[in-house]
Design brief:
Length: about 375
């Protein structure tokens, strides 16, 4: 079996609910869908994404460069292809390169699974039949009553593990929101908070005691500082009893290793697209395992679930309200979530059945996207 062609499409889709945290307002998600076709007519579907900027650059890297490198290759040589492309592309910057690699890597694993008739979680090791899943809101703009309504909705949907945003100007407002949500959840459910890089180390040192005093028994404090501030995260971790979670804005094994060697992180949060697909996710999870840390991947639940079920140190899967592929209408089969657990797809490959017809109204080309961005800037 050999690869014959690669073709990508870019879709710009608004979340189904408002998304706003301490540093970003997300008006649209950009999804890149890459189809890799083989000489046996098996087609693999690859996925990557951005939170609104850079999707056309991913398409260009995949279709204008990676495609030429892939033609004639065996899709079974996933590891060799991943390493070769990463080496060739790395001078373009880690983030963009790994997002492009993700579109290729997820498509190749999809082909391999289809060719041998096995779902991804079995191809990669099948450590778990299911994984815990938490409901995550991008909700810093919500006042307390609206926030509690959102949490109640997620509880009604079966989520016993909840994450909310912090990072308001007034630390007491953050603490009040946390106390209110904990009171609603009761003592038996988990609660996490996410600051989205809002603080300096000095800010975080002042704010952490306020969150600790809220009595919410937080499972983790996520992204308190800039993702490149490894030493700051290490210093903060030594000064607070709150577990520190980091990883959605980190792109390579080496970057994760620096955090782990500095004892700067409790929960490792790689994003399947930002680390270069399933291959990158498994590699990062292996590094975390060597330091006895658990992995709680960021976003794209439907794409991540199969790989997470094959990771021994898996902790939990994130279901981001308003932006899942299921809620966006991008997939024909919703992810199975029951009793606070997510179940991997059993269809051969990664299992995602992307509905291109449903996505068609959101498709954009690079020129259209540039015009949209120019108007938005004005």
């Amino acid at each position: 079996m050999r690869i014959e062609s690669v073709q990508s499409r870019l879709y710009r889709i608004p979340p189904t609910v408002r998304w706003e945290d301490s540093t970003h307002h997300v008006s649209a998600l950009e999804y890149v869908v890459s189809e890799v076709t083989t000489d046996t007519d098996i087609v693999g579907t690859g996925i990557s994404y951005t939170t609104g900027v850079g999707g056309s650059a991913i398409v260009a890297l995949v279709d204008d460069y990676c495609a030429a490198m892939l033609r004639g290759e065996s899709p079974f040589a996933v590891g060799r292809v991943w390493s070769f492309l990463e080496k060739q592309l790395r001078r373009n910057g880690s983030g963009l390169v790994h997002l492009a690699l993700a579109a290729v890597d997820t498509a190749l694993w999809d082909i391999v699974g289809k060719a041998v008739g096995q779902p991804l979680h079995r191809l990669l090791g099948a450590c778990h039949e299911r994984v815990p899943v938490y409901g995550s809101g991008i909700d810093l703009f919500l006042e307390e009553d609206a926030l509690l309504d959102q949490v109640e909705t997620m509880l009604a949907e079966g989520f016993d593990w909840i994450k909310i945003k912090v990072g308001r100007d007034d630390p007491e407002e953050d603490a009040a929101r946390v106390r209110a949500v904990r009171a609603l959840l009761g003592a038996g459910r988990r609660l996490c908070v996410d600051a989205n890089q809002a603080w300096t180390l000095a800010d975080a040192r002042r704010r952490a005691p306020t969150l600790e005093a809220a009595g919410a028994d937080l499972t983790w404090l996520e992204e308190p500082l800039h993702p490149e501030d490894v030493r700051g995260h290490a210093d903060l971790r030594r000064s607070t009893c709150l577990p520190i979670a980091v990883g959605e804005s980190i792109y390579s094994e080496a970057q994760f290793l620096r955090y782990l060697e500095a004892d700067a992180v409790d929960v490792v949060q790689p994003d399947v697209c930002r680390v270069g697909g399933f291959t990158g996710l498994v590699r990062v999870a292996g590094v975390a395992s060597a330091f006895h840390r658990q992995v709680a991947p960021h976003y794209v639940a439907e794409l991540t679930v199969g790989a997470l079920c094959a990771i021994p140190n898996a902790l939990v899967l994130e279901w981001v309200r308003g932006g899942t592929l299921t809620e966006l209408g991008a997939t024909r089969e919703p992810l199975r979530i029951e009793g606070g657990f997510a179940y991997p797809y059993e269809r051969p490959g990664h299992g995602l059945d992307i509905d291109l017809d449903a996505l068609a109204p959101y498709e954009v080309d690079s020129e259209t996207l540039r015009q949209q961005d120019t108007r938005a800037a004005k």
